[in-house]
Inverse folding.
């Protein structure tokens, strides 16, 4: 028998204790939990352990998205997921830990109470939402704006950059069409003088679709707080071997900056059939080609991108 059209593809990952009781299979549920076949997600909801991602790079996001889906399954009425929970659905990056509590939005003050698992926010006017993979979620533009108003500058910029960039993101490869900066400004204008609007204006003024990864977005924010000159993003260089695109370029200093996350070398989609050693050799050869063009190349990773003092050590003396 075919599944109904509104049956999300991820539904079979989850088992609800109330359904197990209704089918008189509660003892089987308990056995599967003890054996590790099922893992708890939230009260009364369990997930098949085989569905949990084995990729450490996405583990926290996978758990956050599982909590969102579990909240949907146990809700009396389908909630509208918002803020960082909406980011998990849209496949937008979060810098730092994902919230343990699921975040939802309500246009009515009596739209339900928060509890230890769910935070409900009263927004005071109709919530614009769409359905993504069986879940009601604030529109991409509204999600960016809410996060811009309420989250850290690092996460807000990473989210805005990713939304402007579009493409595929998130643990399950959510496909997003790019949102325009004019759409984001219009969405922000709808909120009038709501809390956090001034902060979000700063985020939108700084956001850039050319930032190609969360690590680059984080690097940009740290550069901003250090007062470093703003670089050109994704600049192309050419030599007899072809084109090379770099993450950051300061032409007046002939300085190239490259953000290197561990995933760049360890994940299959970046390295293809090449070994890590082969990938590193390719990067060295590419860097030699760049230096031959009378440039200086500076590299850093997550530790430096998230630390003002460490990134200053890499860039400060060269950009001062």
């Amino acid at each position: 028998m075919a599944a109904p059209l509104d049956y999300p593809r991820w539904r079979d990952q989850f088992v609800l204790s109330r359904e197990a009781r209704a089918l008189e299979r509660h003892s089987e549920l308990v056995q599967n939990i003890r054996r590790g076949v099922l893992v708890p997600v939230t009260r009364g909801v369990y997930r098949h352990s085989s569905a949990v991602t084995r990729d450490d790079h996405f583990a926290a996001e996978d758990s956050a998205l599982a909590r969102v889906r579990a909240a949907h399954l146990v809700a009396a009425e389908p909630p509208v997921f918002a803020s960082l929970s909406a980011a998990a659905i849209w496949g937008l990056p979060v810098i730092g830990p994902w919230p343990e509590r699921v975040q939802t939005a309500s246009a009515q003050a009596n739209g339900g109470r928060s509890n230890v698992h769910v935070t409900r926010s009263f927004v005071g006017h109709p919530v614009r939402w769409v359905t993504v993979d069986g879940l009601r979620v604030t529109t991409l533009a509204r999600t960016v704006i809410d996060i811009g108003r309420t989250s850290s500058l690092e996460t807000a910029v990473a989210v805005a950059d990713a939304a402007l960039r579009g493409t595929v993101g998130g643990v399950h490869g959510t496909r997003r069409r790019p949102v325009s900066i004019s759409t984001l400004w219009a969405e922000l204008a709808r909120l009038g003088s709501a809390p956090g609007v001034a902060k979000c204006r700063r985020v939108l003024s700084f956001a850039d679709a050319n930032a190609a990864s969360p690590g680059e977005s984080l690097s940009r924010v740290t550069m901003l707080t250090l007062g470093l000159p703003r670089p050109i993003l994704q600049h192309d260089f050419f030599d007899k071997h072809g084109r090379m695109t770099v993450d950051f370029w300061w032409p007046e200093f002939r300085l190239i900056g490259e953000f290197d996350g561990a995933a760049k070398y360890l994940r299959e989609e970046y390295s293809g059939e090449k070994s890590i050693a082969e990938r590193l050799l390719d990067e060295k050869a590419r860097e030699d080609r760049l230096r031959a063009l009378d440039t200086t190349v500076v590299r850093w990773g997550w530790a430096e991108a998230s630390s003002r003092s460490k990134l200053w050590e890499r860039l400060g003396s060269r950009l001062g």
